[in-house]
Amino acid sequence: MIIWTIYNLSVVIVALLCCIEKPFRRNSERFSADYIVKISAQSQDLFCWGATREISETGASIAVTTQSTDLKSILNSTEIEVNLIDHNLVLSGHAVRITTDNGSLPYLSIMFNQLSEEQESRLLQIIYNPSNSFLRTRIISAAGPILLYIRSIFRSSSLLQSFRP
Predict the structure, then answer these.
(1) Fold of 31-129
(2) How far, in Å, are 41, 63, 87, 138 from residue 48 at the CA level?
(3) pTM of the predicted model, to two decimals?
């Protein structure tokens, strides 16, 4: 009897731990988007071109496509302007960090400064536009989870894979 009590208690504890949500690092949700942007640093008269990888209400991650740009000086500048070319919207902000992924394009993370009401309204219209693919609802059928289960049975790579720290 005591074994079943311990077993039930451990199952309840595991179920409760599964309910704890992982804390978010950001204040707003980021969505993957592909908009052409021009980044210009006001103080040093520098500019570069890129494409947004992710965008949110508070910032953006931009893949810089201009090769000859000194990103360190853009990172050190106090204020930069992000011009969304397709939507004719100019946002001011500051660069937070530069990341590179194994020889791919460098990514510039930008946090927007205090936006005006019109800028914020236009940005929200761009992000939450119904034509964006990430906002489309997916139709869930009964066969989907069954097919996923059958696929996972035949895919044994997860059972054979070992993870090293």
Answers:
(1) Thrombin, subunit H (2.40.10)
(2) 9, 10, 18, 37
(3) 0.65
Query: In this predicted model, what pLDDT tens digit does every residue of 45-89 receive, in sequence order?
Result: 788 899 998 899 999 999 888 876 677 777 777 788 899 998 899
> What residues have CB less than 8 Å from 134, skipping those under 6 apart?
31, 32, 33
Distance CA 14, CA 40 (A): 51
**Ranges of the chain whose pLDDT falls below 70:** 24, 26, 68-69, 134-136, 155-165
Question: Please, are residues 61 and 109 in contact by the beta-carbon 8 Å criterion?
Answer: yes
Radius of gyration, CA atoms only, the chain: 23
Domain boundaries in the chain? Answer: 31-129
For residue 56, which of 85, 27, 94 has the smallest C-alpha distance?
27
